[in-house]
What we know:
Arc Repressor Mutant, subunit A, Rossmann fold, 4 domains, 3-stranded parallel beta sheet
Amino acid sequence: MRRRAGAAGAEDSLEELIRGRIVAGIHVGRLSAGDRLPSYREVADEVGSDLRAVARAYAALERKGLVQVRGRSGVFVAPQERVGGRVLADTAGWFVDVLREAWHRRIPAASLSAFARECTAARVVRCAFLESTVDQVESIGAELRDDFGFEVCSCTAEHFGSRSAQGGPPREARGADFIATTAFHAAELHEAAAQLGVPLVVICINPQFIREVQRTLSQGGLTVVCVDPLFAERIRLVAGEVCTEGLRTVLAADRGAVEALDLSRPVLVSVAARRLLHGMDLPRSFPDQPMISPESARELHALLVRFNLEVVRGPAD
């Protein structure tokens, strides 16, 4: 029987979700060849999917050389071929697809890097990221700078709306090409963006980040080390229906409590807390997922390309 289009799309998304986790884990060193992966039932229970759909996703990834399915023994990370000692074969395959798409658009392989620079580095794109917790300002601000290449001016403020009413848009937003914030402050900054005539990007949290937090909480608890206790409350909110009694907060200012942490247990350390605790023995970043969602990433990339191509091609184009 042929699968319906909707079901096929859902299974493609499930395969991409599992693939993304594995590739990210290998890239950051959390996963190695031979490591056991979550079972069919664990994945199905976590994402609310059918066992058969999970089995088909793992089978597809096995055909692509990313996993090994060993019957009742489980699913394991397959040995990964590396190109030049560092690039995963999976990543090389992705770039082959990029080159093929460029070929369809009559962009020669030798010209692709120059075209990419035109789209992303022809000018500096300035982003004003405004949020009320220093932890999110630094965490998301770092992703905006490091992953997208924006020049980021960020600040924390409790009442953007009242500041705007008193003296126009927030000072930090003036001169920016666009404003970014989270859903917690979208309504407050909508008018400020309109006054400045710039786009407003409401950044959504990555569902994979949320699922990793939920999974960890359901398996025994999570400690959040942060600067502002409001950040831990935000984590509690995104965890949703998952029992959050196991969510513990440790403030970075309490170095004694941080030093006493059991690092064998899951710990989420915010970027701001990691900066304040520089030099201390801290666990590596958790989860191994960006905070910015794929949908928000697409919107941010679209702005990056738009602003750069306006410089290269000129407004008449």
